[in-house]
User: Fold these one by one.
Assistant:
Number 1:
Amino acid sequence: MLKSDVIVIGGGFAGLMAAAVSAKRGKKVTLLTYGSGSFPLNSGLIDIMAKPVSGAIAATPLQGISELTEKHPYQVIGADVLKEAVAFFMGLCEEENYPYQGSLDKHQWVVTALGTMKPSCLVPKTMIGNYCFKQQDIVLVGFNGLKDHYSNVMEENLKNVLENGKNYEQVIIYPDIEEGRDLTALDIARWVSTTEGYAACLQQLRTVVKPGSVVILPQVLGVKPDYAVWEQLRKDLQCDVMESTGLPPSANGLRLRSLLLHYLKKHNVTIIENCQVIGSHIQDKVCISVKAKAVARERIYQAEQFILATGGFYGGGLRMDHFPEIKEPIFNIPVHFAGDPEDWANEELFSQQKQPFALVGINTDAQMHPLDGQGNCFLTNVHVVGRNLSGYDFCFEQSGNGVALVSAYQAAMSV
Amino acid sequence: MEKTTVVVIGGGSTGVGILRDLAMRGVDVLLLEKRDMVNGTSSRYHGLLHSGARYVVKDQEAARECIEENIILRKIGKSCVEATEGLFIRLPEDDEAFEEKWVAGCKNSGISAIPITPQEAWQLEPNLSSRLVAAYRVPDAAIDGFRMAWQNIDSAKRYGGRVKTYTEVIRVVSENGKVTGVEVRKFFTNETYFIACDFVINAAGPWSGQIAALAGLEVHVQPDKGTLIAFNQRMTSRIVNRLHVPSDGDIFVPHGSITILGTTSMSVKDPEDTSSSFLEIESLLKIGEKTFENLRKYRILRAFAGSRPLYSSSGGIGRGASRGFVILNHAAEGLYGFITITGGKFTTYRLMAEKLTDMVCQELHITAPCRTAEEPLIQDVPENVKQQARKYFPAYGTVLAANRLGGERFERVVKRLENSPQERQLVCECENVTVAEIKEVISEGTSHTVNDIRRKTRMGMGTCQGIFCSLRSVGILSQYEMAAEKQGSIEQLQNFLQSRFKGIRPVLWGNALREIEIARGIYGVGLNVNGGKPKC
């Protein structure tokens, strides 16, 4: 049986990054994936830290991290590693010809499908929303049949965010796609990627868009991780062009995913898809192998080191079939919620406090080894990254992909 | 000045029943509801059309009323009723002597209770407890409280009955011991104005004590909170009751693809208190799993709660208080024209309305007889319209939509689907609700929030609990002027997501927890629904 240096379990951002860093270090890496994590949900934005403690937005992402009071993955790992991780990610995107923009010293503002602005940190060029503040004319582009996009809502709320006195125009593009069927932004992105689709789109935009405007579209500027469509449209319209966030599936999330998968293949990572890991073989705190459900039988995968990137409750990396029993299903790493049942969730879904259920997860040491209830190392060759971790609320903090990035980097540097 | 003969206060089942009955007898009547219709007790219960069997031991009269009304409602509201039948099952720990009394009670009340063997019971409902020792079939049924109310209103409107929602009565005005009108306040604008009338009917359910107080009267209505759980599966095709002294958590009612388990019974101060706690849910599950042993394997959609109006002249509380209804003509206390109707239960709402309307008509010297028991609430949907609709709805969806929307509204929706292919898209994939249906409901002018649309269409009530249709429905609603002037789109979205979360919070584990994490991912992270001004 083939034995890897490192097995990474999980096909989300944390898993792909952990595999990328390990492979870059020359390790023989096998990636076991089952699904694509939250790529289709989070627009491929690398949020790092907007709201560390209260509802107030920190001056910069780095400043936000220094304001954290309780035990947080960023504090377990440290700001220096975070800087290295960011540099690694930015270099990787550069190398793959889809450079991201941003740094730990500044929030990047992104226009959302609701017309609010969202603070993020590392952002693809197509989604930098800062131009909105500068230009006078704002064009909101919708597509006929795209039911998850509402320019009227965006205009209403953008007016509250941006300075008064700007001009807004709503434009509907009619894509050459059969009417009456459900369209997603991804369908339209595919259409815009074709020569005819692009030409039709441009022609319709040109009749209404003045040069020098800001043109805001849903994520439809191509499906591949390159800026070709975006650059062409900027040039053809002589405008600032940007994509907003939206409901899933997110084209940019999937662009980032294919970029990373391309990088992994380039670095000879063995990728096994549709591979649900269901158990492990442990001896004296050492994992010998993991067991996966394959197409017709179970398969055993051996490695020296394992990185667990299976996600939280959403991804299935943690399960709570009944309150309050929480289970990490592969290694049985202990996870507990000790509070009063009525304190499991805040009364408000989007409140001014972190959600207690979100803070629950696996505790680790600085090398991302899981810890047991007494704080002792639970498994010596397993590292835990991403949403499995305890101590942070990706939603409240706007920190999800940031924690994924830094923990994946740290784990991969420790294997 | 706005004028009417009768003002009915309260948009629940009692209120709409009275509205319809008075309108059908030719009385000028206006119903006032402080929020949206069917937003209180009448939508926060099992949806059980009682056969009366539950009451045969304690209250034979209530039981008889139930079976009579049960038969009537099946006839006049057939698209609201799912004739599931019901089972009463006895477990070993339930008192055998009670079973004897119960069987005798059913016989005396004219309620068919057919004994079956445990084997037969398991054949009918394989998920039932393996410990059951006795079972009976009774003519219980499932009923859709929302739909029943809309159809009453539609029927009343055809006879000239009028409804104003988001209109709260803040003062009852009288002169020389006689009601002359009410002062009302509009919810969204705070505008107040006077409506002249000769009669005020207080049908505000658990709020009726507060309404009586506006007229300086005292009515002892104790709000009694009942919490229920909606499961995402139809674990039983029949209603299942425990055969014992009526108690918490002993009724299961299937509705379409879900099952509702309830309820608790807890005195509360404020009828607005519809929160449910984790512990209430846990106690319901503990009792419920005696009836269905594998109960905890089923996915829970949400918990919800409502307040029963328990009337006590003598101060009985909880299940000890009467579930019968009372009509209090306050003329005896010196205020002519003010009548309170309270207590009672959904199953007998029509009968309650009939008795009340009889009283008002007598005062008005109107001799027209009550016809609400004979005339169907809505007309049948013509076959050719159904045929047309089949082009746009998924096969089974046509019947569901026809039942849900009723004759005329269904025709208008089908016309929209035909003329505008855009509107064929589904807004709510869980409940199969199209853009056309949402737009039709909004254009009727009585829906101001996404929750108002939800109550009329069922959007957002399915498996994903509104996560994928929230932005869509806010986007569509915002295109209409009436919504924009009241609440901004962010407020609409926040309120709707929060109202869905309220019911999920006490059952936040398993797939409900996963679902909430998606909601936070989409609306919290992706859409930054909490907003905030950027600093640049």
Number 2:
Amino acid sequence: MADTRRQPSPRRAEALAGTLLALPAFILMWLMLLGPAVAVGLLSLTDWNFGEPRIHFAGLDNYHEMWGDRVFWISLRNTVVYVGVSVPATVLLGLIAAIAIESVGPKGGLRGFYRAAYFLPVASTLLAMALVWEFMFHPSVGFVNQAFRAVGLPTADWLQNPDTALMALAAIGVWQNLGLAMVLFMAGLKSIPTDLYEALAMDGADGAWERFRRVTWPMLGPALVFVVAITAIRSFQVFDTVQVLTEGGPLKSTEVLLFTMVQQGFTFLRSAYGAAITMVFLLLTLSITLAQTMILDRRAHYG
Amino acid sequence: MPGVSLRGIQKSFGATPVLRDVTLEVLSGEFLAILGASGCGKSTLLRILAGLETADAGEVLIDERRVDALPPKARDLAMVFQSYALYPYMTVGQNIALPLEMRRMSPMQRLPLLGRLWSGGARKAITADVAAVAGPLGLTPLLDRKPAQLSGGQRQRVALARAMVRSPAAFLMDEPLSNLDARLRAEARAEIVALTRRLGVTTLYVTHDQGEAMAMADRVAVMQAGRVLQLAPPQELYDEPASLEVARFIGSPPMNALPAHVDEDGAVMVGEVRLPWISPARGAVTLGVRPEGWAPAGQGIPAMVTLIEHLGAETLCHLEGGAVLRLAPDMARGMVPGQALRLAVQKAVLFGPDEQRLPLQAAQREPALG
Amino acid sequence: MNRRSLLATPFALPALAMPALAQSAPTEISIQYSIPELFRGLMEDVAAAFMRANPNIRVTIRAPEPDYEAILQRNLRDAVTRQLPDIAFHGLNRQRTLVEREIPVDLRPFMAADARIAEQGYSESLLSLGQVGEAQTGIGFALSTPILYYNVEQLRRAGGNPDSLPTSWEQVAQLARAIHGTAENLNGMFFDWTITGNWAWQALVFSHGGTMLSADERQVAMGQEPGQRAIRALRMLVDEGRMPDMRPAAAIADFFAGRLGISMQSTAQLGRYNREIGGRFPLVCGRFPLSAPNARLPAGGNVAMMLTRDAAKQAAAWEFIKFATGPVGATMMVNATGYMPASTIPAQREEMLGRFYRENPNHLVTFRQQDVITGWYAFPGQNALRITDTINDHLQSVVARRAEPQAALTRMAADVQALLPRR
């Protein structure tokens, strides 16, 4: 009898200790991550405009307005197109670069050079780089048009033409994320045991294509899912280039979610409406993260 | 008829020589173990044979055909890797089927997704062959699982099945049992021998475990520092090691090496004790005696017991000077450390100063004295 | 708070009237402005001159914001955190947003109570630019109007005459086309329709006699006949005047480099144009064409606004506002920029700006446009700033020839109507 009384007490103490130990992380998480998200969520249910002395509950008015807002849909569509173009291109080019650099071999230290060169854009501030790109895309003296002219391709004022501006920005996005994708792929390639390639050779396949298809590609599964998720999230967050190079234009052709959000929330002072757009943005990034977690859990782990 | 020949193989990694002029003739259908400590070059030799490495010099022949310049897939060999090297993203069935797919199906038929449209017949035959090889190995219920869901022993059998599913010119096995625990290893040993015997396929089996090599192989090649020291059937290797190196390597505990000399008459002497053999050699030699090759007797070589190990089936008496005496437990009863013995040698081999084996004949006159 | 209650406070009166006595308790006021590339040196000079004249008041200048939008956002944030500067210089069209948030202090009581207000020489029409509703939100500090800058060399080469500049958009377009035809790689004109707050579009519509909204601000009016003429004029500059669809910054750079003949810009840029051209070619300014008898032009620029609610600081702030916008400050301002002041006195006095204007006739153009000046219109409601952006998009589609003028105007009017507050 006495035992049963004493029994729960250490367990309770353990639970208490656990709670105490988790508390700092818990508080920080709420303070830094969940708290602001909840605050933004609540803000999106009001009619508050930046700087106004009064605030009222407005229910789903902002979401209703968003539903009928042409610019929001353009922005969403542009964002999806941007992600849809830049993510596959980043992944593909990153994979090619990683395989190419890995096949260079360790000789001569060239591998380190390439790795650093490709990774540079990831580490540099895009704001400064955007100015370089503005020059690159300059209609007359820019490198892009000069190169295109040299090989007889059609030229354009890439950032000023509504038909090409989004693609030009996507190209910059690819340039920026390529190094990250490449480094992640290189880590993935390194973790492939060489005896799998040898087993494959013994099993009768030693061409480059078979090696890639039967071993490299499937073994890169987890790296691939991670690269896709991270480049997708980074692409969804495209803002700097838009802000610096096009300001959403011309004619809303580069209007993307984050830019719309900032413009509504800060330039147009529609804080509550901007908060509502933020919620949509959060939902999108959250669903990518969830999808990534689910796919990784289900399929890509080979134990 | 030679199944696989390696002639004059040399290989260096950078400045480090790994194989120095290795020649091996493996008979067709033979089970040959390559035995050596790690780093002796045995795996490299196997990989050169497989085509995964190229030799710096020498010839590789399979069924009397030069294959040095051929890629692995053209050599018609199957290999079992130490790590098994199963494709983790494929099911057991797909793993076993892959060698068949690669050999029997055209590139068009092997296309992802699309290939399925026009490879129905070939695929059916492959499935049947996979089932045929999986059955005897007990893999039938596991065919749809991924390697990660299997135990070590099961993975090992999948690797075997993948090697066996087509009939290669030879099996190459690189320490296939080293990742298994002791009990499984003994089982798998018998299983592999039975399977290769049944298939009658030439097998090269690389191992560092002399027990495996002795138990499984028709012949064993003992390698050290990039050279083959001796190539012989297990019993011959044990009884008549070609050199002191082999003698020390084979057997547990190893052969006792006793300093000895041969007098002018050719009599083999250990200290003042004359042994019942004569040799054409003269001067200082080394006498090799297996732990069970001598026994306590009334007269013979004097020795002192320092330690007694009762191992159940046998008892090992460690002697002063590092030699070992193996006794049946009955014989060892009452023996204590510190006890002085006289040992009569019943069976021995003789090595010269160059550590190579010397001829030894039983002396005519005298009976065994010790 | 008005002048009377201010006088009742025990410290304010001596502080104002007898600076020497108040030295032991100086009043501190903070000011904030934007567009440092135009105003930094000027503001520092004005503050220094003011402190010399008023040793009992210490003026601290806060870090300037890059433009009118940035200082608006900054002060709105400051209002939430209660860290507003005591005085801020805001764009004319941003006054409404600030008034809606009850941030500026009405200056009417200060003016009414100030016996020496007449010495400031404020013109009624220029004062009106700082009014929202009944309140005097601010007093014009640096005011501008849209004008046309001509490169005289190219004007002559194309057969134009700097003494008889175009007075209609048709003439401007013809001249631009002629300039464009004189050389390769030379553009005739650029009408900067991107200037913040739809300023250039308002100028076009107002100068055709139109307005943005109806008088009660419930209906869009820019789609009516004056607006239709305005949008057609814009397109005519593109079609007939060969105006390129390019970034304004590039166009301005081209003008400085002599690769652009005519540039429609604010008079605010005059100082910069003179500096950048550096005498490489003669520059002449011409009036913005007026295309209707009741034509008006929107003023640009900024007003000095009082934000402090503290009585002592308000007294000091009022002194500073008077100094900066009055004859002394105005003289300094005109010398440093191309803007015009709200005070008419300096231009009339030889020792102040009389001589300056005679020697710099380009600065006088904006002065002559005073008679048609009107406010820089700010749209009502929470979507005010978004309407600006929407109008810009439609203007761009016209300039880029992606939409017909009439169709673009119809859609523009509909879009703006949808963004107006529903009452």
